[in-house]
Amino acid sequence: MSGIIVSPSILSADFANLEREIQSVKEAGAGWIHIDVMDGHFVPNITIGIPVVKSLRKVTDLVLDTHLMIENPIKYIEPFAQAGADILTFHYEACRGDEEVKSVITKIKNSGVKAGISIKPKTPPEEIFPYLNEVDLVLVMTVEPGFGGQEFMHDCAMKIPKIKEQAPEGLIIQVDGGINNLTAKICTSLGANSLVAGSYIYKSCDYKKAIDSLL
Length: 215
Ligand code: DX5
Ligand code: ZN
Fold this sequence. Notes:
Elements: E1 5-8, H1 18-27, E2 32-38, H2 50-59, E3 63-69, H3 77-83, E4 87-91, H4 98-110, E5 114-119, E6 137-141, H5 154-157, H6 159-166, E7 172-176, H7 181-190, E8 194-197, H8 199-202, H9 207-212
Parallel strand pairs: 1-8, 2-3, 3-4, 4-5, 5-6, 6-7, 7-8
Helix pairs in contact: 2-3
The protein binds D-xylitol-5-phosphate and zinc ion.
């Protein structure tokens, strides 16, 4: 066991067959399922919302790793938690100041789910150091959030050791964007222990082979 959690992003899955697509990656070794929620404001794309999370909860026992790329995240924490999300990761940049970041984290924890904080490529890792003891997961974006299938930004991966150095024991460091067999190795060797991969897994013809090649 490598201890690395692979979280396939269903953004690149066949949306007409999500139950089957989730079952297939589970059988192929996925630890979690990554759900990309986009609101058309925080990012220039619209994807999945609360009813889809609720439906997926009924058909899988995999951890629903929910990535909120939305403005005003605090408003939607409880509905997503009630829908069955296990992890709620919000964007630091979607908050207007320290108070709001803390309130979102508190709200997530009070909703009984795990809390993640994410940073976009241009955000320095130092900005989230004050929250590392409060969250369960840090998501380092290695592309600009909004779309699957983009190219991995190497500079962003250099944030991983900086975060790891400051991280309390047990903090999950996740990367998302442009992850494939090569970039996965870069990230895990730098200290990441959770890999989100969308197009690399779902556009492959053998999900097991694709997932195995990330580890
Ligand atoms: C991008 C999303 C990612 C996306 C990754 O904004 O957060 O989760 O699905 O897709 P790939 O792995 O294709 O870069
Ligand atoms: Zn994502």
